Amino acid sequence: MSEGLNIRQTGAKYTTYSANPSARLSVHDLNHIPVPAPLPDLHGKRCLVTGATGFIGSHLIPKLASLGAHIRALAWSGEPQPMLPDGPDEILHGDLLHPASIAGNCRDVEVVIHLAARVTDWGPRKWFYSSICTATRNLFEEADREGVSRFVFMSSVAACGVHRHLRGFREWDPCVPAGIPYGDLKLETEQWIREAAPRAGMDWTIVRPCNVTGPGSVWVCDPIRRMRSAAGLPLLDGGAYDACLVDIGSLTDGIIRAAFDPAGANQIFHFRDEWQASWRQYLTELGLMAQTAPRGQLPFGLAWRLGSSLERAGNWLGVRAPVTRLGAGLLGRELTVSTLNAQERLGWEPSRSYADAMARIYEWVQTGPARIRPAGRMRDALQALRG
Fold first, then answer.
1. pTM for the whole thing?
2. Are strands 211-213 and 111-114 parallel, antiparallel or unpaired?
3. Which residues pair with 9 in a beta bridge?
């Protein structure tokens, strides 16, 4: 079994490598786990969280509850109760595209944390416009009517313009639209909030995470599915660039600090863990966990041009293109944006080491959905290796 994964966690070392000793990937020191400052006590704080059933919402809500916040969770109309995370004190259902369905949802709330949006790399612009721009404006206007103190908007590093390198990019550096609906409309909504909030006498906070990883994340599931597909997943520019990952635990810590710390008012924050793991390393390790691997290489410029053409065809057919410009930008540009604003204003630090994050992902892949975990004989072999 030349491509089995062997993960050993002994003492201070976590080692990820293939069964072939010559193919060792990485060694990380578990003693270098950051120790961030304690999170704030939120007893007496009342907040509304949209996107409650999404990946970020399902991790943020239990953490808010553990800190004592009173949480009102907003889920899409018709979403089943089992999909909702533990922790909210109130569960509301509504459609952000229909203001009447969310009337009164912000009553007696101090902070709105708006996570809900269309988060994907395909589809016509109008789909993104309604779920990002229209939905946010409807929610903001409801928050304004109810006297909410702070509106927290979940944006993305894609708003900065991922058609170019963003090494050291600061929060106040000029963003450049890339022609990608998701990122461009996140930027347009950021600008709208920054203009509307002062008129409403409301504080605003904008959060721009990098590529969010963790058990069940799209940056775990989607690469594995694509690596297993007939088309495969090529490395862009050899996978040389930093994967710019942020662990879900680090991100939720950052959101809470940004939303409730007075220093977070009227600020933009980038969040990424400074692991310095390249796309080649990260995708290779994910692949080994799931008995697959990235295949081939593609220059960024070619991927961008292919994405532009294939997106148009895919949108016309109503299917996701195998290559998209958003995917090309996220995997084929250096997006190591600066996190100094979060560190200096909020005292934020990454809360998990790369070693710990990958160990958690490994455990989830082995026990997670059947479409992700290795089947039968391979899974038994992996467990034997770990033992």
1. 0.88
2. unpaired
3. 14
Per DSSP, what are the bridge partners of residue 272? none
Tell me, letter by letter, the H, E, C secondary structure of 253-266: HHHHHHHHCHHHCC
Q: Are 265 and 148 in contact (CB under 8 A)?
A: no
pLDDT in tens, 219-232: 999 999 999 999 89
Instruction: Give the residue among 213, 215, 222, 217 at the shortest CA–CA distance from 371.
Output: 222
Confidence of residue 85 (pLDDT cuts 50, 70, 90): low
Q: How many CA atoms lie within 13 A of 364 on its CB side?
A: 15
Residue-wise pLDDT tens digits, 124-171: 889 889 999 999 999 999 999 999 999 999 999 999 999 999 999 999
Query: Using only C-alpha atoms, what is the Rg of the chain?
Result: 21
First to last CA, the chain: 16
Distance CA 140, CA 147 (A): 10
What pLDDT sits at residue 373?
63
The whole-angstrom separation of Cα 383 and Cα 128 is 43
Q: Average pLDDT for residues 306-322, to the nearest whole number?
A: 87
* pLDDT for residue 255: 98
**In this predicted structure, what is the pLDDT of residue 246?**
97
